[in-house]
Amino acid sequence: MLDRSYHGNNRFSMNLPNSITMSRIVMIPLLLWILSSKFPWQGPEGWQELAAAVLFILASITDGVDGYLARKRGQITTMGILLDPLADKIMVTAALIALVAYTPQVVKVWIAVVIIGREFLISGLRSIAASEGFTIQASDLGKLKTVIQIVSVVAVILAHGWYAWHFGWFILPVEWIAIAAIYFMVLVSIISAVDYFVAFWRKIDHASADRRSHASFVLSRRKDLPAANKVG
Q1: I need a labelling partner for 14 at 20 to 30 A (CA). Which of 41, 111, 128, 181 fits?
Q2: Residue 158 predicted with pLDDT over 70
Q3: pTM metric for this prediction
């Protein structure tokens, strides 16, 4: 039976998980197009925002589906390893930059800078960790940040079309929920970044200590060799 795992000629194959990842990248310019003023199909009030929100939710779902399928089907490839985090960073960066222009009263420039900067910081730490031969698993805070990020972006998109939703006597303040979600996302993003950095620092410090210990052991063995030869 042909092994479809990560080796050989399958490293750059376009399998189902990789195709799903590529679909997420394709959704990004489509999302920006829907959010732009040049989108041609102007339907009922709020229809444009609803379409953009649904598309972003679908793109976010593919983020979990591709990884799950890759592990389940044994189709973890070099292409997938490269494309998956790249697609995530592009999606978050594009959405936040678009929302700064789309809803400036909710998403301030400094908020986009903090969130995008956090994403690139974590990517840099992961690259250093990989070069040192270890990985840092996503923490619960990181997973919570991802969920809050999805909710925040969707809420902000909807807040452009509605200030509030009225259900009889009940009023759902869409814009206030979006503002609260965005600032909560910033808080969780900063805390999760600090948590990730602490975990990274502990592991790289441990790896450095292991290398120093190994070097000392090799050096002591070399010093002992002449004495051992004399005894022999």
Answers
A1: 128
A2: yes
A3: 0.75
